[in-house]
Design goal:
Number of strands: 11
CATH superfamily of the largest domain: Vaccinia Virus protein VP39
CATH topology of the largest domain: Rossmann fold
Strand content: 5-15%
Largest sheet: 7 strands, mixed
Number of helices: 20
Distance between the termini: 65 Å
Oligomer: single chain
Number of domains: 3
Radius of gyration: 24 Å
């Protein structure tokens, strides 16, 4: 345990790199995943993992850290100094080392990152933050939304929304869930008539075909990713594919396909019996990821179409010899991501109250456009990674009102992270009657 604490506090490379990236994030509020892609290219292995852990920890707890700082200083320090204080604050919340070690390390790092004067400020402020952060109790069940928002670092308006939708107990559970680091799940992709079993070091889960990747095994995961034997994917992604029930030898259309995880799942479900998977998405950089992922498909024909679902695609499909209608169509639409905040850690800071209504309008447009490609008697699955009814059932109901008699709701599933143990979302199976 002493070695673990020492490694977590020391982090000679990860800590300053995390401070630099966080200073940039605090200044610009750019998407953290995009900042991470270009950050600290020299970090590998355990240092890279620690770097990500530190950055994600501060972003998760940003409001709690910001509030503590505001109660101590009247004028916030420079972004790089603020980042150093927030890193120390996260380590204090995490509780994996003594306060004195955390503060001393932050002070020494600030001397290089900023200046000796700012290091003295970090020394004084971090000690006061420790008194606040390490003694702040978890709010009781029926606490006001503002108290929950501060402790669990979520926007107060979003906490109030969830309290109204889900009640106090479920909201507490969801907030706590979002604040915990997400495990990494991998889907095992057996190929051939005698597929190889997954290696023993992958941890089994309650969901067949999905495994948890233990920490410290990235050297083993890399070759499996490069060969296509595994695909990093949350178990929640299986739900819309199960409802879609793709049949070997048939044609399937995925209308919001990039980066390709669900198109790959569809192809794997059809493996051994042939068929066609058409993956459609808007032109742009995401098409490259889609091509990379679908390069692993075997035994199923795949076609990638870069186009706008809202425009006439008939000519493009005809020119490429693609069917105008499909027995199975998937519309996994853009959404608020409220079901996947454990993974998309900065979504809560970018989400606005009006986004739910805006997303619902766009989602209904996509669903209506996708329905035109469903063959008579075919299946249309509408899915989101949102847990909000406005983006789920209400969109499905609005679609059915818009297309009376043409479609019927056959089945639906809503997954809630704190109940199901994986990402949340909604999936709706719509059957075309005529």
């Amino acid at each position: 345990m002493a070695d673990l604490v020492k490694s977590r506090v020391a982090s000679p490379l990860a800590w300053p790199e995390a401070a630099r990236l966080l200073a940039q994030w605090l200044a610009t509020r750019e998407r953290i995943d995009r900042l991470m892609e270009a950050a600290a290219p020299g970090l590998e292995g355990a240092e890279r993992a620690r770097f990500q852990h530190l950055v994600f920890g501060v972003v998760r707890h940003a409001l709690r850290l910001e509030t503590a700082l505001q109660r101590i200083v009247a004028h916030p320090p420079r972004f790089v100094t603020r980042a150093a204080l927030f890193l120390a604050g996260f380590e204090l919340i995490e509780g994996t080392a003594e306060t004195a070690k955390i503060v001393h390390h932050a002070v020494e790092q600030t001397k290089t990152l900023a200046s000796p004067a700012e290091a003295r400020l970090v020394n004084a402020v971090a000690r006061k933050m420790a008194e606040m952060l390490r003694t702040q109790p978890e709010p009781p069940l029926f606490s006001p939304a503002d108290s929950l928002a501060e402790f669990y670092s979520h926007p107060a308006w979003l906490v109030r929304r969830w309290l109204a939708l889900f009640g106090a107990e479920s909201t507490h559970a969801l907030l706590a869930w979002n604040q915990r680091p997400a495990p990494v799940f991998a889907r095992w992709r057996p190929e051939g008539s005698h597929p190889a079993p997954a290696p023993d070091w992958l941890k089994a889960t309650p969901w067949p075909g999905f495994f948890e990747v233990p920490s410290g095994r990235w050297a083993d995961v890399g070759p499996l990713l490069r060969s296509g034997q595994v695909y990093l994917q949350d178990p929640a992604t299986r739900i819309p594919i199960e409802l879609l029930a793709p049949k070997p030898g048939k044609a399937v259309l995925d209308v919001c396909a990039a980066p390709g995880g669900k198109s790959l799942q569809i192809s794997d479900a059809m493996a051994g019996g042939g068929g066609l998977v058409v993956s459609l998405d808007l032109p742009g950089g995401r098409i490259g990821r889609l091509k990379e992922n679908l390069a692993f498909v075997r035994g199923v024909r795949t076609e990638i179409v870069a186009g706008d679902l809202g425009r006439d695609l008939a000519r493009s499909f005809k020119e490429r010899g693609l069917p105008p209608e499909y027995p199975a169509v998937l519309a996994d639409v853009p959404c608020s991501n409220t079901g996947v905040m454990r993974h998309r850690i900065d979504v809560k800071w970018r989400l606005q109250e009006g986004d739910f209504r805006k997303h619902a309008r766009q989602q209904l447009e996509i669903l209506s456009a996708a329905s035109r490609f469903v063959a008579p008697g075919g299946r249309l699955v509408y899915s989101t990674c949102s847990i909000d009814p406005e983006e789920n059932l209400k969109v499905a109901e609005a679609f059915l009102k818009k297309a009376p008699g043409d479609f019927a709701l056959e089945d639906s599933r809503i997954s809630y992270p704190w109940v199901d143990g994986h990402d949340g979302g909604g999936a709706f199976l719509l059957h075309r009657l005529s």
